[in-house]
């Protein structure tokens, strides 16, 4: 039997196209954002309140190092080279500068990045019914990364699902469920609230570090589509994971990335893919506190559909 056809705590079962469509319409009707999507819930008052989560002043990066070597999950790695000084030539006396060139496939399966609201096209439209024709050869003329040019600052909450289940990581193909998110809140004595930046750990990065990279496009752990009901109920502003947020293979017939469709297209939630929480978890455990001030600063790329990103948790 196909293991994905079974149901259980880590695998709540497949969704038909009809079931997914009903969930999509239900969530879209509950969307609360305007032109900036769910970020409208991050008000100045909530940013000020988030600052109260800072206790020790420790800072932790939530991004993985950008990778320049190809691998099974990174066939098109970032490019980086020094453009000065010339190779094998010592600079002559006087002042000189070392310079470099960087290029990146933003929406890959290895590097940490932010998905803009223009990233998902579903039924010929973007979030909010914006026509897909706004995506031009020169770039996205609507809903691009430019929406978050001033950064995203708010209360971050990390829910650690492997910790909840007593395992080092979720295996590829396993799902995070609605009940997992609620149970993790209880176990960690934290509650996700309106305007929060929700980070869900599945242990993808730890598994990759300990067992080596694999074809994450084909199989990985992530959220089950029904878990997005949790985000809608709490009016979460941003969703981030150490995986792609979506499980592979998809749990939904005919929809390869259901969480991306529900999060970005239906609810207007910016997604952060392939973060890393292995530095953050021990700090949260040491301080017994799973909420923090978080700063996300994408590059200023006015017509881009995403950006490399290095979120910083301030505890």
Task: Walk me through this protein's architecture.
The chain has one domain (15-66, 107-314): Putative cyclase (Glucose Oxidase, domain 1). Helices cover 22% and strands 19% of the residues. It is built from eight helices and 15 strands. The chain has helices spanning 17-29, 44-50, 161-165, 178-188, 204-211, 228-234, 258-266, 280-287; strands at 59-61, 79-84, 99-103, 113-115, 135-136, 139-140, 152-160, 175-176, 197-201, 222-223, 238-241, 270-273, 291-296, 306-308, 312-314. The strands form four sheets. It has a nine-stranded mixed β-sheet with strand order 1-15-13-7-9-11-12-4-14. Strand 11, helix 7 (258-266) and strand 12 (270-273) form a beta-alpha-beta unit. Helix 1 packs parallel to helix 7. The longest helix is centred in the first third of the chain and has 13 residues, at 17-29. The chain is globular and about 70 Å long. Mean pLDDT is 94; it is low at 1-9.
Q: In the CATH scheme, what's the topology name? A: Glucose Oxidase, domain 1
Number of strands: 15
Give me the side-by-side strand order of the main sheet: 1-15-13-7-9-11-12-4-14
User: Secondary-structure element order, as H and E?
Assistant: HHEEEEEEEHEHEHEHEHEHEEE
How many separate domains?
Answer: 1
Instruction: Give the biggest beta sheet.
Output: 9 strands, mixed
Shape: globular
Strand content: 15-25%
State the low-pLDDT regions, or none.
1-9
**Gyration radius over CA:** 20 Å
Helix content: 10-25%
Helix/sheet category = alpha/beta
Number of helical segments? 8
Corresponding CATH superfamily: Putative cyclase
- CATH class identity: Alpha Beta
CATH second-level architecture:
3-Layer(bba) Sandwich
Average the pLDDT over all residues and give the rounded result: 94
Distance between the termini: 46 Å
């Amino acid at each position: 039997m196909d293991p994905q056809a079974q149901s259980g705590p880590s695998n709540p079962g497949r969704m038909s196209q009809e079931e997914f469509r009903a969930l999509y319409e239900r969530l879209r009707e509950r969307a609360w954002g305007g032109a900036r999507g769910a970020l409208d819930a991050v008000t100045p008052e909530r940013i000020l309140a988030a600052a109260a989560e800072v206790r020790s002043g420790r800072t932790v990066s939530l991004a993985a190092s950008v990778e320049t070597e190809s691998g099974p999950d990174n066939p098109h790695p970032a490019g980086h080279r020094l453009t000065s000084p010339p190779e094998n030539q010592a600079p002559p006396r006087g002042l000189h500068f070392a310079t470099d060139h960087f290029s990146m496939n933003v929406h890959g399966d290895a590097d940490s990045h932010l998905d803009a609201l223009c990233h998902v096209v579903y039924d010929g439209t973007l979030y909010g019914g914006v026509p897909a024709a706004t995506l031009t050869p020169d770039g996205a003329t609507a809903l691009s990364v430019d929406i978050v040019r001033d950064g995203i600052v708010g209360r971050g909450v990390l829910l650690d699902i492997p910790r909840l289940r007593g395992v080092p990581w979720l295996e590829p193909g396993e799902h995070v469920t609605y009940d997992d998110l609620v149970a993790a809140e209880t176990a960690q004595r934290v509650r996700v609230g309106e305007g929060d930046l929700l980070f869900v750990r599945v242990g993808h990065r730890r598994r990759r570090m300990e067992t080596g990279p694999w074809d994450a496009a084909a199989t990985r752990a992530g959220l089950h589509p029904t878990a997005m009901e949790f985000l809608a109920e709490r009016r979460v502003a941003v969703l981030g994971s150490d995986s792609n947020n979506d499980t592979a293979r998809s749990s939904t017939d005919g929809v390869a990335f259901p969480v991306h469709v529900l999060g970005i297209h239906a609810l207007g939630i910016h997604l952060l893919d392939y973060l890393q929480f292995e530095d953050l978890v021990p700090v949260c455990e040491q301080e017994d506190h799973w909420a923090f001030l978080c700063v996300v600063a994408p590059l200023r790329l006015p017509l881009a559909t995403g950006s490399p990103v290095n979120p910083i948790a301030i505890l």
